[in-house]
Amino acid sequence: MKFNQPNIGTSINDLETPSLIIDLEAMESNFSVISETYADSPCKMRQHAKNIKCPDILWRQIEIGGTLNGVCAAKVSEAEVMVEGGIRDVLITSEVVGSDKQKRLAYLAKRANIKVCIDNKDNLTELSSIAASIGSKIGVLIEVDTSMGRAGVRTPQQGLELAKLADSLESVEFLGVMSHQTVEGFADKETRFLEGKKYIDMCLEVGKTIQDAGIEIKVVSSGETFSYDVAPMIDGVTEVEGGTYALMSGPTAYMEEFSLAGKVLTTVIDVDEAQIVIDAGIKCLGGPLGVKPGIEGDRNITFDQMYDSYSILSRKGKGNYNIGDTLLIETSQQDILVNRWDHFIGVRNGIVEVIYEISARGCHH
Amino acid sequence: MERPVSKPIGQHFLDLDTPALIVNNSRLRTNIENTAEDLMKIGIKLIPNTATHGTSGIARTQTGYNPKSPIFVDTFQQAECFFQAGFENIIIQAPPVSSRKIDSLRHLQDSQTLTLSISNVSHLDVLKKTHGRRISVLLKIPNKSDSVGFKTHEELIKLIENMETLEHLRFEGLITNANEMESMEQACEVLISAAKYLDSNSISSDQRLLNASNLILEKEFNDIPKGITGLISGTYPFYTATQNTVCSVISTVMSTPEPGKAFVDCGQKAISIDQGVPSVINYPDAEIEKMSAEHGYVIFDSSKLNLQIGDKILLAPASYSDTFNLYDFVNIIEEDKLQSIIPTDSRGAFK
C-alpha cells in the first residue's frame, strides 16, 4: 500500500515516525571523500547498489566523481532497477543460477553493459548458451574467495581453468577477476592496510596466473569500504566495490573520514525513570542476532528489548525525556535496514529537501 | 519491490523464482481451525494478530470472512491497510502520541470500530483531542516480561474515571503482553488481579486480553486461567511440529565451492535472522551456518549429502513476522502447486 509522504520543506520535527532519514550534507561529504581519493588514480569506485538501492542516490556519487560511471548490484532484479534508472554499466557481484535468471540477465545485457561473477564451469557454459540463444554477450569475472569462505575459486589453478573456458566461449566476454573481503571489529588504519592488501593480493595472484597463461585481465574488481584507500594504491586493481561508506553504520564508525548519514527518526511513546519506549522495532530496524543500534547524542540510552514495532531502551542517566520527543537512531547494519523501507527522506539543515524512492527494495531475485 | 520471474498458477512450487516465500494452504487452514476450536472449548476468544503476516488474504481466513470479527495490529498504518481491505473491528497496539496518528486513519468509517491500547496518562490527553468518532480504549497492564503500562490499580481507577467524562471514549478493558512462555502465568495473574480490583470498585472490564503470540498449543491454552476473555496471537497459523511446515522460504544453491559447503541465494534481506538462523527443512543433514545480507552459508556432511548448484532448499524462518515483512507477495501452495499469489498488504507500514 502507498502511504502519503511528507511535503518538501517540512521540518524534521514535523515528520511522522518512524522515518528513514538521510542527512544529505553527511552523505555528500562521504561522496566527496571518494571523489578526492580516486581523482588522480586509474582505479575508480564502483559503488555497490545493494546498500542504497536507489539509482538517484547512486547518480549523486557519479556526479560528484571518483567512479567509473557504473555500479555493482547483488541480484539480477536489482541490476534491472539500476539500468531502468539510467545506469548503463552494472557488475552483478554474485553468481546467477537457473535458466530463468540467466535469461533475464542475457536480455538485460542487450540494454546495458552487464557483467557477472562466475566460479563454476557448468554455470558458465549455461550462461554462454543462454546468451547465445538471445543474441547478447555477457561480461564475466571470476570470483576469488579471499577470506569469506563463500562462493569463489579457491586456487589460482581453478581460476585459470575457468578463464580458459570463458575465453573460448562466444557469448561471454572474459574480463578478469573480483573478490569480496571483510575486516572484523574496529580496525585501525594499519590493520585495514595490512588486511586489505593481503586479501587483494590473493585476488591479484589469480589474475596474474591467468595473465601469465596469455589471457588478458582487463578488470580487477576488489576492495570494499574498509579498504577504499588501500586498493587504489595497489598496482593492478582497476575498481573498488564500496557501498557502506555512503550512509555508514555503527560498526564501521572507526573510519572517521566518513559520517553517519542514514538514521531512523523515532518518537518516544512511553517513558518512566528506568526506560524509554520508542515506536521503532525490528521490522523497520533489523537487529540480526543481537547487533543493536544506538541513539544519537546519548550513550546512556541503550536498546534493551526489540519487538516487531517498538523497542524498549534502558536509561542510565537523568536525561529529560517525554512522550512525543523524537530521537535519531544510529543504525547497526545499514543495508538490511534500507531494504525494509520504501523511501529515504533527504534532510538538510533540519528541512526535508528530497524524497528518494528506494526502488530496488525487496529485489531478492 | 520484489521482481520475481512470474510463474503460472499450477506450477510446481519448487519451480518458483527464488528466494520465494510460500505458505501451504491446507496446513494453514487446519492450524487456524484447530486453534479457534481449542480456544472456543475453554471459552476464550481468539483475536488474530494480523501484523504477523500483514496479508488481508490470510486475515480473512482467520476471521472466518466476518468483517466484524476483531483483529489486532501493531501500527496505525497497518490499521489503515486492514480497514481499507474491509476489516471493521481493529485493535491497535501502538499508543497514540499525537492526534495526527488517529487523523491519519483517513478511510475510517462510522461503521468501523477502533480500539486503542494506552499505557500512559499522556496517551489519554491525546485521545481527549480526537473528537468526532468513538474510540474504545484498552489499558495496558505491565508484567515481568513487559514492564510498560499502568503500574498501580489506583492509576487505573483515576484514568477510567477521567475517561468516563469524555463522551467519545469508552473503557473497553485491560491488556497485557506475555512475550515469553515463562512469563505467561504471571502476566495472567496481574491482569486478573487488576480486573478484580476494578470490579470491586464497580468498574467492569469487558475485555481482559492476553497478547501472547508464542502461545500456540492446546495444552498451553489449558493453562490460561479463568478470567482471561481473549488471546491475541499471530504465530498460530504457521505453527508446525513436524517437517510439514506451513511457511517457508525456497532458496537455490548458487555455488558449491568446497565439499560440505553450499552457498544459497537467500540471506538476511529475504529471511529474518533476528531470532536465529533458519532451519533447513528438506535436507535434515544440512544446516545454515550463517547468513550475509544477500546469501546463506549451508554446511553439510558431504559423505551423506551432495548438494549441487541449482538444488532448492526450504528454509523455516525463526521469525515469521519479520520474514513476511521482507516480501511483497506470498505464494500460496496446495498439493505442491502454486494456487494463488497474495500481497502482504501492510508490509512496511511502520508508522
Please provide a written account of the structure:
The complex is a heterodimer of chains A (365) and B (351). Chain A has 365 residues and is α/β, with parallel strands linked by helices. In chain A, 29% of the residues lie in helices and 26% in strands. Chain A folds into 2 domains: 111 residues, Lyase, Ornithine Decarboxylase, Chain A, domain 1; 225 residues, TIM Barrel (Alpha-Beta Barrel), CATH 3.20.20. Chain A is built from 9 helices and 17 strands. In chain A, strands 1, 10, 11, 12, 13, 14, 15, 16 and 17 form a 9-stranded mixed sheet that branches. Chain A has an 8-stranded parallel sheet with strand order 8-7-6-5-4-3-2-9. In chain A, helix 4 links the parallel strand 4 and strand 5. In chain A, helix 4 crosses helix 5 and helix 6 crosses helix 7. Chain B is elongated, with a radius of gyration of 22 Å. Chain B folds into 2 domains: 115 residues, Lyase, Ornithine Decarboxylase, Chain A, domain 1 (Beta Barrel); 214 residues, Alpha-Beta Barrel (TIM Barrel), CATH 3.20.20. With 351 residues, chain B is α/β, with parallel strands linked by helices. Chain B is 24% helix and 26% strand. Classes of the chains: A alpha/beta (365), B alpha/beta (351). At the A-B interface, helix 3, helix 4, strand 10 and helix 8 of A face helix 3 and strand 10 of B.
Quickly list its features:
heterodimer, A: 365 residues, alpha/beta, Lyase, Ornithine Decarboxylase, Chain A, domain 1, TIM Barrel, eight-stranded parallel β-sheet, 9 helices, 29% helix, elongated, B: 351 residues, 2 domains, nine-stranded mixed β-sheet
